[in-house]
Amino acid sequence: MQEKIIILDFGSQYTQLIARRIRELNVYCEIMPFNRLPAQDFMVKGYILSGSPASVRDRNAPCLI
Questions:
Q1: pLDDT exceeds cutoff 80 at 62
Q2: 20 to 30 A from 33, CA-CA: which of 4, 19, 41, 65?
Q3: The pTM is what?
């Protein structure tokens, strides 16, 4: 059984690069769209949230309040 990492893609331009680096470490990795959560899988050892192209410095950027 192989452990894996899931990358939830929110539109980042670096998602493919992140996945390649993880795979270079001999870790299985899948990229999934942010709006399609994977079924529960006990082999998943971690999730990476790969950001969006929106700037955090933008006036209308989402905030956590």
A1: no
A2: 65
A3: 0.74
